[in-house]
Model the fold of this input.
Amino acid sequence: MKLLTAIQPTNLLQIGNYFGALKPATELQREHKLFMMIADYHAITVGVPPKLTENIYFATAAYLAAGINPKKSVIFQQSQVPAHTELAWILETQTAMGEASRMTQFKDKAGAKSDRVSVGLFAYPMLMAADILLYDTEGVPVGEDQKQHVELTRDLAERFNKKFGETFTVPKPIIRERGSRIKALNDPEKKMSKSSPSAKSYLSIMDDEDLIAKKIRSAVTDSDPSITNDDARPGLKNLLTLFHLVTGEAMETIVQQYNGKGMKTLKDDLAEALILHLSPLQAEIKGWMDNKDELKKIIQIGSEGAATLADEKLHTVKKHLGIVL
Done:
């Protein structure tokens, strides 16, 4: 099966990106053809991030350090494949304003300022559809917040196929369970995000030992000292989820181990487990970041391979539209 997944190089990656996308991708590449995209055009929809070039290198280094093999999977940079934006325009002509207006992520990000955000943010789902459809992608590993965009992609593929002839593979969303429910440390009602204005809300995969310990100690929980696996206690549930992801132990096993020991002991041990788990990854990333020439070469080779496939699909699209002379 062909799968496509992507990370925006908007900042250093947080722990949710690692457990929700990077680690599962290393498992998926064993049995599937995996396209790993650095989504730099998506990253500029709400303004050009600072240190964008550095972040592109970092995303690549993180892919490699996590175990993505560039000889087996395609690591590529979105902006190096012009077919993405060209197909996005074609798909925009096939998308109704009502469909685009119903995208909940646009509403969430735009908020009350929808008349002042970029047109790019509004058109984001059509570019995402182009990303997916260019490679005959069959499955798209996404979090629940991106499921609606994959459903729009399916609608656009089916509509185009019906109007212009069989052109696109209709993809299906693969909802990520592992790591997809990590919440902000300072507000466990919200999803953890590396774009949060408060660094206290997330754990960067590059945070040092002292910072990890400090953030975990200050993570919002509640006044109940008991350790329970209870959805009504989202702060504690979030820490238990992190513990489960780091150690692989079942949530109920962790609860049994720490019930009666108190929140402080749980937090201290979780911080230590996170430090031990992240240290080898951090060292591997730093090694890659010290060799940007090799990172650039890997990006270019992957992007050239992706462009070859994307150009073939775009030519078919144009032929079916009737604009190939």
Q: What stands out?
A: The mean pLDDT is 92. The radius of gyration is 21 Å.
